[in-house]
Amino acid sequence: MKLQFQKLLKYKFITLLFLQSIIINGQENIIGSLDSLINISIKNKNFPGAQLYVKKHDSLIVNKSYGFHTYDSIIAVKNTHLYDLASLTKVLASTFSLMKLYDNNKLDLNKKLSFYFEDLKKSNKESTTIFQSLSHTSGWIPYISHQNFIKKKNGELKKSIVRKEKSRRFSTKINDNLFLRESYSKKIFKRIKKSKINVVGEYDYSGLFFFYVPELVHKISGLSFENYFNEKVIDGKNTTLLFNPLKSFNKEFVIPTEFDSNFRNTLVHGYVHDEAASFMGGVSGNAGLFGNAESIGVLLDFLKPKNKMFKESTIKKFTSYAFKNTSIRRGLGFDKPYQNKNQGDYPHGNLSDQTFGHTGFTGTMFWVDPKQELTIVFLTNRVYPNRSNESFYNDNVRRKLISIITQ
Q1: Lower Cβ count inside 10 Å, N or C end of the chain?
Q2: Is 256 part of any domain?
Q3: Residue 54 lies inside a defined structural domain of this protein
Q4: How far is CA 68 from CA 39, 78, 215, 216, in A?
């Protein structure tokens, strides 16, 4: 009997080793394929460098950096370096902050935005609710190119709006050499207020509501948006996510984005890439957050109920479909897969309908699939040297990446 028991233990041990080797070899194959995809993408000039973070079943599969800050191959990308996260700001800073307020019973999603902002009363946006805004069904137009309003017909910047030296009236820093008139943000909100409304109730992605989020958070909490995010969202979470990174880091820690020939006429490096967010001093609800893939992965872990950052009901409310069994794929703040497979399999058919995430203009993305216990964070500066390069999209890099991870 004892001999049989020993043989059984030996058999189980060998089986366990065999299974572990399959898993390890499988992971090594996946990592090798990911390395190959990203290195080929760099060679094809889809982007000069990238960070990738993949976690599954609480096991960290990948946390790697690739390539360089720029194509001159001078500064190699490291895991601690910071990317401009672009529209991931709408989720990681804005939505997380609003979730926290909702979780603490301080935010009513059905409240009209005009309840908090008097100037929206008697406008075509008077009836817009926070729920509609977060689900992108408010009818607000997608974007306003505010940078076009600060230039003369000959392309020069208007000195009444932008100066090359800082002063009391021109104190909003756009970059090292440009300073915006302090009161100019009022013009931005006036344009948003006067902008047209499309069809309310239909999905139309809009970033305009997120310009109101910093002041909305301030009105409800009494803290500035930046302080609320630091103290209530990321405090103590061992993560580096911040606005205006040059206040805390040297430039070599921050990956540049684009040579802006539109109005800044220089390399955008350490300052927010989004033009409208730059007019808000780099702290906005639509863009402006910088960070690395690992930091985002750490923060996303707190969307697991067991980590008790939010109530489970709050997580479900925001990450589920805002409108079930419709063509609208959005959650509240979060992007999601198509509900109707006839529309396509965005972001990928291998991800479940529980998946939530977001993408960013500069070449950033994250997706979380709770069903598979999978987290993917992928950061690039695909707009370098300029946004006219569409090869990142043409080569379907994001989709190929998800294919390899979920194979």
Answers
A1: N
A2: yes
A3: yes
A4: 11, 9, 37, 38
Query: Please, is 338 exposed, middle or buried when counting C-beta atoms within 10 Å of its C-beta (0-12, 13-18, 19+)?
Result: middle
| Token reading at 222 | 């009494």
List C-alpha distances in Å: 387 to 46, 74, 278, 286, 407.
11, 22, 17, 18, 31
CA distances from 304 to 111, 179, 352, 388 (A): 27, 42, 17, 38
Q: At what angle do helices 96-103 and 312-319 cross, to 10 degrees?
A: 140
End-to-end Cα spacing for the chain: 44
pTM metric for this prediction: 0.93
Q: In this structure, are residues 53 and 63 in contact, taking their beta carbons and an 8 Å threshold?
A: yes
Evaluate whether residue 12 is within a structural domain: no
On whether residue 22 sits in a domain, the answer given is: no
Angle at 160 between CA 156 and CA 165, to 5 degrees: 80
pLDDT of residue 1: 53
How far is residue 333's CA from residue 219's CA, in Å, rounded to a whole number? 20
Q: Which residue has the tokens 């690992």?
A: 294
156: DSSP letter: P
262-309 pLDDT, tens digit per residue, is 899 999 999 999 999 999 999 999 999 999 999 999 999 999 988 989
Which ranges constitute the DSSP H helices of 117-163? 130-134
3-state secondary structure (DSSP) of residue 389:
coil
The domain containing residue 106 runs over which residues?
30-405
Which DSSP symbol is given to 57? T
Token pair belonging to 102: 């909702």
Other Cβ atoms less than 10 A from the Cβ of 263: the count is 17
Residue 254: CATH number of its domain = 3.40.710.10
Q: Which of 306, 310, 308 is nearest to 101 (CA)?
A: 310
**Is the backbone peptide bond immediately before 385 cis, with ω within 30 degrees of 0?**
yes
How many domains are there within the chain?
A: 1
